[in-house]
Design a protein that fits this description.
Blueprint: H1 3-18, H2 27-34, H3 36-50, H4 58-72, H5 75-87, H6 92-105, H7 108-124
Length: about 130
């Protein structure tokens, strides 16, 4: 696959994940402020290659990303990926269940933080309370 094809796929996947919902700068903008070439390489790898693979759907990838970020208590990044999960059609009830599943492995503080982030994203999107 040519570099131009990967760039096109990167832009398409990024738009699907981050093109609507809450207004938040993706980490790419921060990376680019330090090193434009490396930012482009990282973006093409993560969004153009990894997220474009078809072994997992975008919904499954986002559920996994949300679970990991919640367990790591990386709330800023979690906010971005909760929004992306909703953008690609993740079921809101299942996403909440992912966060409750953290209780066993990450503890209740991680559950509480994840649910707060989730609620805040839903509020910003005008989708709170969940029906």
């Amino acid at each position: 696959m040519s570099e131009e094809d990967i760039k096109k796929r990167t832009r398409g996947t990024a738009k699907e994940l981050f093109g609507k919902g809450i207004k938040m700068d993706p980490p790419y903008f921060l990376w680019k402020a330090f090193d434009r070439d490396l930012a482009n390489d990282l973006s093409m790898f993560i969004t153009g290659n990894l997220y474009s693979r078809t072994v997992l759907t975008l919904q499954e990838r986002q559920m996994v990303a949300c679970a990991m970020l919640a367990a790591l208590r990386a709330t800023d990044e979690l906010k971005l990926h909760v929004n992306a999960a909703l953008n690609v059609g993740c079921d809101p009830e299942k996403l909440a269940e992912v966060f409750f599943q953290l209780a066993t492995y990450g503890g209740m503080p991680a559950v509480n933080e994840a649910l707060e982030v989730y609620r805040d994203v839903l509020r910003e999107r005008g989708e709170w309370p969940v029906k």
